[in-house]
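Quick note —
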Amino acid sequence: MKGFFIRCGITGFAVLLASQIIPGIEILSFGSGVAAVVVLAFLNAILRPILYLLSAPFIVVTLGFFMVLINAFLLYLVSGMVKGFLVSGFWPAVGGAILISIVSGILNLWISEQGHIEIVTRSPTGRKIKHIN
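Predicted structure written out below.
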C-alpha cells in the first residue's frame, strides 16, 4: 500500500511538472490538482487496461503510438471531470500524456511494490536488488 501512495505522489509530481511546462495544461488550485491526480490514478488503474485490451490491434499497427493517444484521452477526460484542472485541446493533452508517462515511468523504476527504493545491479553471478528504505 505504501508503494501505491508513493506512486500517486510521483504521478502528482509529473502532472504538476506537465502543468508548468506544457502550455494549455493548467491547475487552478491545490485541491483541483490533488483531485486530478486521484481521478487520473483511478482511471489509469481501471479504465486504461480495458482500453489497451480493446485497442490492441491499433497499438500493434501503430507500434505503440496509440497508447499515447489513449493516455491523452484519459488526461483530457480528467480535465472534464475535475473542475479547476484544464487541458485546452488535443496537442496539450498529447504533450502532457507524453511528459507524464516519461517522468512517472523513470521515477517509478526505482520504487518497489512495498514502497522501497530499489537499485538493480547485474553481476556475473546474477541479478541483485538492493532495497533502500
